[in-house]
Amino acid sequence: MARTVLVIGAGIGGLTAGSLLAKAGWPVTLLEASSELGGCAGKFKRHKYLFPAGATLGMGIEPGGIHERVFRFLGKPMAIEPLEQVMEMVHPEATFVFHKDRVRHVDGIAAHFPEYSDQIHTFYKEIYQTAAIVRTLMDPLPVLPPSTAAEWAFLAKSIRPKHVKLLPFFNQTLGHRLKKHGLGDLQEFRHMLDGLLIDSMQTGSEDVAYLLAAVALDIYHEGAYYVPGGLYRFSELMGDSLKDNGGVLKKRRTLEKLERKGNLWMATDHRGNVYEATDVILNVPIQQLPKILAPELVSKLKVSLRDGIAGETWATLTLYLAVDSAKLKEPLPAFRQISTGDGLAEGGHFFMSSSVPGDELRAPEGFQTVTISTHSRTDQWIGKEKYEETRAVLTERMLQAIQDAIPEFREAIVHMESGAPKAWERFAGRPNGFVGGFPQTLDAALFNSISHHSGLPNLYVCGDHIFPGGGTIGAAASGIHAARSVSGERLV
Questions:
Q1: Which end of the chain is less crowded, N or C, counting CB atoms within 10 A of the terminal residue's CB?
Q2: Which InterPro entries does the UniProt entry name for this protein (predicted)?
Q3: In angstroms, what CA-CA distances link 101 with 104, 224, 351?
Q4: Domain, as residue range, for 180
Q5: Shared domain check, 350 and 452
């Protein structure tokens, strides 16, 4: 029987898997529930303004980066320049600047804490050395946790003598290392790190797995990018490649049922169309699996995957604004974090990204579009009255924090709308508005991650809940692993 591949979901993970397999000659059909590609890294338009739905900061496009390797394999390179100044990090005590250059960055951070300068320099030296070693594993990109003999063999083949240096850190958090360097009680410094980590690791310095934290704090230096138009361009490149290589891409097709019949998977969409395939890659939030699989199939999923389905992650409130740049003293920077000192969620910390002047893919001349998002706990959104109250409170909290930094900001707003958890559930298919994947703590990271192997024959999962975790890089890596398992080839 000739093998065929069905990919469900055109987020970054599904598009990565589908486009790689199509390029390698596999017959691929990809179904997407929305009219847009990219999932949480997609876009939508209002009037003359285009807004990135969620993810905004481009990563992994540097030479050898995960996305760059995929685009190179597809023959669709993306040539844009990395940011020398990645972002501003506005805190009550100080405004820190994240520089691409490592030396300049560390010197700038240490200047805020002169009495701890030596400890900070030593801490970052360890961070960068550790990240450099971990990054050597990103070339072969072994799977964790390995599920097959071939994956164990590939992991063993990927290990080099230098990786032994990582063993003492395997069960440590970043909090452990901060204490080791005498920085455990330097709260202003830790708050700055927390702001970086909550956006990439979904947790703060006390609990995040150290090996992943080291990579997260270092990877901006490898290359962070402003992508004209937005990260939806990643999705469009892969969607175009899939079709160029004979794949079929169908939008507005919502999967309602996935059944196993003999050696085939049978997928039924909301229109009653049935699709047959020998191999299926699901790029849907794992919380959807009990809705599309029969109970007897759910019971056969891997234990880690079943446990993940029952777990909770963060929700978010996202604001989408357009501003009249003429009413601002200066254009808004492309990327800025703002922390009020009131915690990592509920508007106490948020990420703000703006289109740069001249990016007319996102806004006409003289205007900028702005995407602002904060983490939120799902229990803040229970009940209609509390839901609307939370939306209003968090919106005001974030707008006021921006107003404190930019007094003319509110006056410049010409359009505003919000994306609360129900919107993420409706438009991005995220049950309960869960976004971002699981916090990368010791009990959820590395060998404790959820594998792309579902536990059912020829059924694979990918996306931000699957190893190696959230973000476009993590989602793409899980898609690569799924494509490798289907094809039996390394591909990239």
A1: N
A2: Amino_oxidase, CrtISO-like, FAD/NAD-bd_sf
A3: 5, 11, 22
A4: 85-222
A5: no
